[in-house]
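TICKET #2291
ISSUE: user wants both folds in one file
ATTACHMENT 1:
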Amino acid sequence: MNTRNDFLETLKFDVPTAIDEYSKYMYDYKEDFYRQAYREHIAISKIFPELDFHTVCRIKSFKSTLDKARHKGLDKVYDIHGIRHIINSVYGKNDEDILIKYCYKIRDYLKSYYASSSIHTEINREKDYILSPKENGYQALHLSGVAMNGHNRRFETQIKTTKMDEFAKYGNANHAEKYKPRALGKNPLSNVPRYAVIRSIDGKPAMHELSLEDCFQYFYNVPYADCLANRELDEKN
């Protein structure tokens, strides 16, 4: 039987360091992360005014961070802070081939934007899952970088179409499958990331940080109230 000590020995870092590092991303670095995503959204909007898109900021859950770092090492986890630029339409049309072309345009633009913003792009971590989808069908363009602003904050940027995003959440690539299990389990809150969404409203970008209940709904596609009701029913039985 696996014990807590067995689990700790499998980690490629010490837990106090992991807790300290994660706390910085969750609290100390959060405003800087949100500012980065907000500025990116504005910059993309100005360069590509024909786009209708929204931006999702995601802070990975501590449990998910531990699970990933256990296999790769904490310094290899770039997506505690994740930015998703999701393209809905171009000139009011949602032709997927055209949207895909803009995914590449945004990627190329962001690479030059990062270079001018004291952000180092990790070239060897750049992924094209549109040209070469994952086995489960997942598609997106990924960039990884380090914000060189004193604390070297790592982050990952994803660029995808609405169709790709919906497939990642609800299709074969969803988190209920092998890729990233999204089953509720006994402690469903432990897996829930924190989300903020940036949309253009009346031509101006607006950021909305989701409540814990909304984050839960976004991640599991199940209302938090329903989950609580089911857990209470299970406990009675």
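ATTACHMENT 2:
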Amino acid sequence: MQQIPTNELNDLLENMHPDQLDQYLRDNRQYLADEKKGFYYYFKGVLDEKQIKLKDVYSFAGVTESYGSKIITMEKHTTDRDLIIRLCLAGHFSWIEMNRALKLYGMNELYAKDPRDACIIVAVKDRIFDPYAIDDILVERGLAKLTKDE
């Protein structure tokens, strides 16, 4: 699913009258934020663009397909930010894409002033998507790993 930049939607709203809102909401339904579905549609759209299968994402992120599916569809909500980051890494999300996914899930975006987040940002910018390789970067700096110890 191709995303429409927010500024393009803003442009549509600029000269819109209230009687045109229903048409706008119908035409742009897939692009509008929906607490429950926004994350799923965005996440799935990025994966489709990159031709990455959800089942591969679950496996790479270290979760079962059943659990991963519940998290991504938000049937089950997690407070584990690292899990969402691992799912994004598995989907080869860019820094911007990862921040958007975190925000849609209701979590804090990666923050440059946070040392751990800074390490993750640099790794992603360098196209390092392997959570264990990122763990090495984090541990070398005395920071908490992304993955759980088995």
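RESOLUTION: both attachments delivered.
EXTRA DETAIL ON ATTACHMENT 2: The longest helix spans residues 38-50.
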